[in-house]
Specification:
By secondary structure, the chain is mainly α. It has a single domain, classed as Up-down Bundle (Growth Hormone, Chain: A), CATH 1.20.1250.20. Helix 4 packs antiparallel against helix 14.
């Protein structure tokens, strides 16, 4: 299958009324990834403020993540009819408004309220994030078709910034405000985005620009699509196992203060963010196979460092190395997706992304069960095993690419 030629410059002339989404609208929709980062990284950072660093009730923490993933799954059915009836702009506004209300609700049910109320709140957060993702992937499709690499990179940077910001807000206000007050401040961010989206005009992408359902399903059923989905599933699981449990691990395993442990979580997000930006610079200059192998091996070593360390310096060094080693994997996989699946459809890419998010949330869910049996030290064992699986999947993707009839080069 040959790649269609990508346009080198925008076609001159005004966009047709009611036709393709205006570039300005696509950029506004892309900014929603910042809110997505806040919503999905919120739970890992807020757990110490909910006093879980003082408890060993790991099953309850796992239930919070179960609620989050349940909400994401529920959005699969809630988002399409909302998008059809309300359009892109209103769906983005509704998703952000629902996220703000969900955060306010969680502020009302902060400890000493029953944790089951907070599980319900996490379901609402997950559903809001899932609806937001569906609307964003539809809205940015024209931008993606024009420059897929730049679009995905910018989305990843904004998502990482959202994760970083929520960790910084909670860590810097931990001893200044109550948990409820911190969540009210965070709720203001999606509320501002909701107001901005409600005032913006969005046009639905033209149906003629999308492939038929048979073409989309045909791509998704290919071995390459399955392998890419599985790789993102496990890689996101590795990243979010750390993101969800790192503050509790550092506080209970090493006795680090909760505010400092959340700040180290922010350092992890910063290492991921800087690493992914640096990876884009390095991709044209290094062999991808060697780059990926080095990254996976480094992530294994970082997990071993975190398991064995007994001091703050070792924890910080392990976290920075882990974030930096995880960083290049996602850009490399996304690059391959762009080459292997050129007939982009927002439903297809959103399906792969949603599957990856499910993996990212399933890992901390599972850790709640494992930690209740073997202790919090097992938090680093799962990413270590996941890195081995990622390495094996990378080898399978390389082999599948070599054996397929595609003319593109392997990793």
């Amino acid at each position: 299958m040959s790649l269609p030629e990508a346009p080198q410059a925008p076609i001159p002339g005004p966009l047709p009324e009611g036709g393709t989404l205006a570039p300005a609208g696509a950029r506004k929709a892309l900014a929603g990834f910042f809110v997505s980062g806040i919503l999905l990284a919120f739970l890992g950072a807020i757990l110490p403020a909910w006093q879980h660093h003082l408890l060993s009730d790991y099953l309850t923490v796992g239930l919070y993540f179960v609620g989050l993933i349940t909400g994401v799954i529920a959005s699969v059915w809630a988002a399409p009819p909302l998008l059809d009836r309300r359009g892109v702009g209103q769906t983005l506004a509704i998703a952000c408004a629902a996220a703000s209300v969900s955060l306010l609700y969680l502020a009302l049910v902060s400890p000493p309220s029953s944790p089951w109320w907070r599980v319900v709140g996490m379901v609402l957060i997950g559903c809001s994030a899932g609806i937001l993702h569906t609307a964003m992937f539809h809205a940015i499709s024209p931008m993606y078709r024009h420059d897929p690499v730049a679009t995905v990179n910018l989305a990843g940077i904004l998502f990482g910034l959202g994760c970083l910001v929520v960790a910084l807000v909670i860590s810097t206000t931990f001893y200044t405000y109550t948990a409820a007050s911190i969540q009210i401040w965070i709720a203001l961010i999606p509320a501002m985005f909701a107001a901005g989206y409600a005032r913006s005009r969005f046009h639905a992408p033209s149906a003629a620009q999308h492939p038929s359902p048979r073409e989309v399903l045909g791509e998704f059923r290919s071995p390459g699509a399955v392998l890419f989905s599985l790789l993102l599933f496990f890689q996101f699981g590795n990243e979010w196992a750390i993101a969800g449990w790192l503050p509790l691990f550092l506080s209970q395993r090493l006795g680090i203060s909760p505010a400092t442990s959340i700040m180290i979580l922010a350092l992890y997000w910063l290492a991921l963010l800087i690493g992914r930006v640096a990876a884009q610079w390095a991709l044209p200059r290094v062999r991808h196979t060697r780059f990926l192998a080095s990254s996976v091996l480094a992530s294994m070593f970082a997990c071993v460092v975190l398991v064995s360390t007994d001091n703050l310096f070792g924890a910080v060094s392990g976290v920075v190395l882990l974030g930096a080693s995880f960083a290049p994997i996602y850009p490399l996989v996304v690059e391959r997706i762009g080459h292997r699946f050129p007939y982009y459809h927002p439903g297809f890419y959103n399906g792969i992304f949603s599957f990856a998010i499910a993996g990212g949330l399933l890992a901390p869910c599972t850790l709640g069960f494992f930690a209740s049996i073997w202790g919090v030290r097992t938090v680093m064992a799962l990413p270590l095993a996941g890195s081995v699986v990622v390495f094996l999947l990378l080898m399978l993707i390389w082999l599948e690419a070599r054996l397929s009839s595609s003319s593109h080069a392997a990793f």
